[in-house]
Amino acid sequence: MDDVSLLPQPIDPQGLPAHNAVAVYLLELDHSASRDSPQRYLPLLAALELANWQKIRPVQRQWQYLQSRVLQRLVLGAYAECDPRALTFLCDKWGRPTLAEHADLHFSLSHCASHVALAVGSDSVLGVDVETVVPVRPSFMHIASQFFHPEDLAQLMEVSEEQRYGRFLEQWTLKEAYLKALGLGMHKPMADCRFERTPAGLIVAHDRAPAPGVAAPTAFIAQRRMRGCQLALAYRYGRPVRFRYLNGDSALPWQQTG
Fold first, then answer.
1. How many helices (H) and strands (E) does the chain have?
2. Is residue 4 part of a domain?
3. Is residue 236 assigned to a domain?
4. Of 112, 62, 110, 102, whose CA–CA distance to 82 is shortest?
Protein backbone atom coordinates (compact mmCIF):
# COMPACT_ATOMS: atom_id res chain seq x y z
CA MET A 1 0.00 0.00 0.00
CA ASP A 2 1.32 3.48 -0.86
CA ASP A 3 2.16 5.32 2.37
CA VAL A 4 4.07 8.28 0.92
CA SER A 5 1.81 11.00 2.33
CA LEU A 6 2.05 9.67 5.89
CA LEU A 7 5.75 8.78 5.96
CA PRO A 8 8.53 10.42 3.95
CA GLN A 9 9.91 7.06 2.85
CA PRO A 10 9.12 3.36 3.28
CA ILE A 11 10.08 1.77 6.58
CA ASP A 12 13.36 -0.11 6.21
CA PRO A 13 13.91 -2.27 9.29
CA GLN A 14 16.99 -4.10 8.04
CA GLY A 15 19.07 -4.98 11.06
CA LEU A 16 16.69 -3.24 13.47
CA PRO A 17 15.75 -4.14 15.97
CA ALA A 18 18.85 -6.27 16.22
CA HIS A 19 18.79 -9.03 18.80
CA ASN A 20 18.49 -7.46 22.26
CA ALA A 21 18.09 -3.91 20.91
CA VAL A 22 15.31 -1.32 20.78
CA ALA A 23 14.21 0.87 17.86
CA VAL A 24 12.04 3.93 18.61
CA TYR A 25 10.08 5.59 15.81
CA LEU A 26 8.78 9.11 16.42
CA LEU A 27 6.19 10.66 14.09
CA GLU A 28 5.04 14.28 14.25
CA LEU A 29 1.29 14.39 13.58
CA ASP A 30 0.12 16.28 10.52
CA HIS A 31 -3.17 17.88 11.53
CA SER A 32 -3.43 19.85 8.31
CA ALA A 33 -4.17 16.61 6.43
CA SER A 34 -6.86 15.38 8.83
CA ARG A 35 -9.80 16.37 6.64
CA ASP A 36 -8.54 14.91 3.40
CA SER A 37 -6.53 11.80 4.25
CA PRO A 38 -8.51 9.39 6.49
CA GLN A 39 -10.15 7.48 3.65
CA ARG A 40 -6.71 6.74 2.28
CA TYR A 41 -5.69 4.82 5.40
CA LEU A 42 -8.92 3.31 6.72
CA PRO A 43 -8.45 0.09 4.67
CA LEU A 44 -5.41 -0.66 6.86
CA LEU A 45 -7.52 -0.92 10.01
CA ALA A 46 -9.07 -4.09 11.35
CA ALA A 47 -12.78 -4.11 12.17
CA LEU A 48 -12.24 -3.34 15.87
CA GLU A 49 -9.81 -0.50 15.10
CA LEU A 50 -12.27 0.94 12.59
CA ALA A 51 -15.09 0.76 15.15
CA ASN A 52 -12.92 2.55 17.72
CA TRP A 53 -11.98 5.21 15.17
CA GLN A 54 -15.63 5.92 14.37
CA LYS A 55 -16.45 6.54 18.05
CA ILE A 56 -13.70 9.08 18.67
CA ARG A 57 -14.49 12.79 18.83
CA PRO A 58 -13.40 15.45 18.03
CA VAL A 59 -11.92 15.02 14.56
CA GLN A 60 -8.42 15.94 15.76
CA ARG A 61 -8.38 13.01 18.20
CA GLN A 62 -9.81 10.73 15.52
CA TRP A 63 -6.92 11.63 13.20
CA GLN A 64 -4.46 11.15 16.07
CA TYR A 65 -5.74 7.61 16.65
CA LEU A 66 -5.70 6.78 12.94
CA GLN A 67 -2.10 7.92 12.41
CA SER A 68 -0.91 5.96 15.46
CA ARG A 69 -2.52 2.71 14.24
CA VAL A 70 -1.33 3.21 10.67
CA LEU A 71 2.24 3.82 11.84
CA GLN A 72 2.07 0.73 14.06
CA ARG A 73 0.86 -1.45 11.19
CA LEU A 74 3.35 -0.08 8.65
CA VAL A 75 6.35 -0.51 10.96
CA LEU A 76 5.40 -3.92 12.38
CA GLY A 77 4.39 -5.16 8.94
CA ALA A 78 7.87 -4.25 7.69
CA TYR A 79 9.56 -6.08 10.56
CA ALA A 80 7.30 -9.11 10.14
CA GLU A 81 7.76 -8.96 6.34
CA CYS A 82 4.05 -9.15 5.67
CA ASP A 83 1.17 -7.00 4.47
CA PRO A 84 0.35 -4.60 7.35
CA ARG A 85 -3.34 -5.37 6.82
CA ALA A 86 -2.65 -9.03 7.61
CA LEU A 87 -1.38 -8.36 11.15
CA THR A 88 -3.57 -9.72 13.93
CA PHE A 89 -3.35 -8.08 17.35
CA LEU A 90 -4.29 -9.88 20.55
CA CYS A 91 -4.43 -8.70 24.17
CA ASP A 92 -3.22 -10.59 27.23
CA LYS A 93 -5.15 -10.66 30.52
CA TRP A 94 -3.78 -7.22 31.46
CA GLY A 95 -4.76 -5.70 28.12
CA ARG A 96 -1.23 -5.57 26.70
CA PRO A 97 -1.28 -5.92 22.88
CA THR A 98 0.77 -8.62 21.15
CA LEU A 99 1.12 -9.91 17.60
CA ALA A 100 -0.68 -13.21 17.10
CA GLU A 101 1.85 -14.80 14.73
CA HIS A 102 5.04 -12.99 15.73
CA ALA A 103 5.55 -13.65 19.42
CA ASP A 104 9.23 -12.69 19.23
CA LEU A 105 8.42 -9.15 18.08
CA HIS A 106 7.54 -6.84 20.96
CA PHE A 107 6.31 -3.26 20.77
CA SER A 108 4.86 -0.36 22.74
CA LEU A 109 2.76 2.45 21.26
CA SER A 110 1.95 5.91 22.61
CA HIS A 111 0.39 9.03 21.13
CA CYS A 112 -0.43 12.52 22.27
CA ALA A 113 -1.81 15.66 20.65
CA SER A 114 1.35 16.25 18.62
CA HIS A 115 3.28 12.99 18.21
CA VAL A 116 3.16 9.21 17.94
CA ALA A 117 5.95 7.06 19.40
CA LEU A 118 6.44 3.37 18.68
CA ALA A 119 9.14 1.25 20.34
CA VAL A 120 10.01 -2.11 18.78
CA GLY A 121 12.33 -4.76 20.21
CA SER A 122 13.09 -8.41 20.77
CA ASP A 123 12.43 -8.18 24.52
CA SER A 124 9.00 -8.10 26.15
CA VAL A 125 10.24 -5.65 28.82
CA LEU A 126 9.52 -2.55 26.79
CA GLY A 127 7.41 0.56 27.34
CA VAL A 128 7.23 4.01 25.74
CA ASP A 129 5.21 7.12 26.48
CA VAL A 130 5.07 10.51 24.76
CA GLU A 131 3.38 13.74 25.86
CA THR A 132 2.99 17.19 24.30
CA VAL A 133 4.95 19.87 26.16
CA VAL A 134 2.84 22.86 25.08
CA PRO A 135 0.27 23.93 26.10
CA VAL A 136 0.80 23.46 29.82
CA ARG A 137 -1.95 21.57 31.63
CA PRO A 138 -3.13 24.09 34.25
CA SER A 139 -4.27 21.27 36.56
CA PHE A 140 -1.01 19.31 36.52
CA MET A 141 -0.34 19.66 40.26
CA HIS A 142 -3.83 18.37 41.03
CA ILE A 143 -3.11 15.38 38.73
CA ALA A 144 0.20 14.81 40.51
CA SER A 145 -1.48 14.87 43.94
CA GLN A 146 -3.85 12.12 42.79
CA PHE A 147 -1.38 9.77 41.09
CA PHE A 148 2.15 10.46 42.33
CA HIS A 149 4.23 9.08 45.19
CA PRO A 150 4.66 11.62 48.07
CA GLU A 151 8.37 11.87 47.29
CA ASP A 152 7.51 12.73 43.67
CA LEU A 153 5.43 15.64 44.96
CA ALA A 154 8.31 16.72 47.18
CA GLN A 155 10.62 16.74 44.14
CA LEU A 156 8.15 18.90 42.23
CA MET A 157 8.02 21.42 45.03
CA GLU A 158 11.82 21.60 45.25
CA VAL A 159 12.23 23.01 41.74
CA SER A 160 11.26 26.48 40.57
CA GLU A 161 7.75 27.17 39.32
CA GLU A 162 9.13 27.60 35.79
CA GLN A 163 10.70 24.12 35.88
CA ARG A 164 7.85 22.35 37.67
CA TYR A 165 5.73 21.37 34.67
CA GLY A 166 8.75 19.98 32.85
CA ARG A 167 9.61 17.84 35.88
CA PHE A 168 5.99 16.70 36.12
CA LEU A 169 6.01 15.58 32.46
CA GLU A 170 9.27 13.71 32.95
CA GLN A 171 7.85 11.85 35.95
CA TRP A 172 4.52 11.17 34.25
CA THR A 173 6.05 9.73 31.10
CA LEU A 174 8.52 7.62 33.08
CA LYS A 175 5.69 6.16 35.14
CA GLU A 176 3.62 5.39 32.05
CA ALA A 177 6.58 3.78 30.29
CA TYR A 178 7.45 1.76 33.41
CA LEU A 179 3.92 0.39 33.77
CA LYS A 180 3.78 -0.51 30.07
CA ALA A 181 7.13 -2.30 30.31
CA LEU A 182 5.82 -4.33 33.25
CA GLY A 183 2.84 -5.25 31.11
CA LEU A 184 0.40 -4.30 33.87
CA GLY A 185 -0.76 -0.93 32.55
CA MET A 186 -3.02 0.97 34.93
CA HIS A 187 -3.71 -2.19 36.95
CA LYS A 188 -0.76 -1.06 39.10
CA PRO A 189 -0.94 2.35 40.83
CA MET A 190 1.38 5.05 39.50
CA ALA A 191 2.27 6.01 43.06
CA ASP A 192 4.02 2.65 43.64
CA CYS A 193 7.00 3.76 41.63
CA ARG A 194 9.09 6.91 41.82
CA PHE A 195 12.14 8.02 39.87
CA GLU A 196 15.24 10.02 40.64
CA ARG A 197 18.34 11.08 38.73
CA THR A 198 21.78 10.30 40.12
CA PRO A 199 24.47 13.02 40.06
CA ALA A 200 25.73 11.34 36.85
CA GLY A 201 22.32 11.77 35.24
CA LEU A 202 21.28 8.10 35.43
CA ILE A 203 17.55 7.56 36.00
CA VAL A 204 16.80 5.11 38.81
CA ALA A 205 13.40 3.56 39.63
CA HIS A 206 12.18 2.72 43.13
CA ASP A 207 9.11 0.46 43.29
CA ARG A 208 7.63 0.09 46.76
CA ALA A 209 5.38 -2.80 45.65
CA PRO A 210 7.18 -4.90 43.00
CA ALA A 211 4.86 -7.24 41.12
CA PRO A 212 5.83 -10.84 41.99
CA GLY A 213 7.06 -12.87 39.06
CA VAL A 214 7.06 -9.89 36.68
CA ALA A 215 10.30 -8.82 34.99
CA ALA A 216 10.87 -5.11 35.58
CA PRO A 217 12.70 -2.64 33.34
CA THR A 218 16.18 -1.70 34.52
CA ALA A 219 17.03 1.17 32.18
CA PHE A 220 15.24 4.43 31.40
CA ILE A 221 15.50 7.34 29.00
CA ALA A 222 13.56 10.59 29.50
CA GLN A 223 14.20 13.42 27.07
CA ARG A 224 12.62 16.31 25.22
CA ARG A 225 12.61 15.31 21.58
CA MET A 226 11.52 16.62 18.20
CA ARG A 227 9.79 19.95 18.50
CA GLY A 228 8.17 19.97 21.88
CA CYS A 229 7.38 16.47 23.04
CA GLN A 230 8.51 14.68 26.19
CA LEU A 231 9.38 11.02 25.63
CA ALA A 232 10.22 8.27 28.11
CA LEU A 233 11.41 4.74 27.41
CA ALA A 234 11.67 1.81 29.85
CA TYR A 235 13.63 -1.28 28.82
CA ARG A 236 16.29 -3.75 29.97
CA TYR A 237 19.77 -2.47 30.74
CA GLY A 238 22.37 -3.22 28.07
CA ARG A 239 20.08 -2.99 25.04
CA PRO A 240 21.23 -0.40 22.50
CA VAL A 241 18.49 2.13 21.70
CA ARG A 242 18.13 3.78 18.31
CA PHE A 243 15.79 6.71 17.60
CA ARG A 244 14.33 7.48 14.19
CA TYR A 245 12.45 10.75 13.53
CA LEU A 246 10.20 10.06 10.60
CA ASN A 247 9.06 13.52 9.54
CA GLY A 248 8.74 17.16 10.53
CA ASP A 249 11.38 19.87 10.54
CA SER A 250 13.63 17.72 12.72
CA ALA A 251 13.49 14.52 10.62
CA LEU A 252 16.75 12.64 11.22
CA PRO A 253 18.25 9.24 10.44
CA TRP A 254 18.87 6.66 13.14
CA GLN A 255 20.53 7.99 16.28
CA GLN A 256 21.94 5.60 18.85
CA THR A 257 21.76 5.87 22.63
CA GLY A 258 23.38 3.42 24.99
1. 6, 12
2. no
3. yes
4. 102
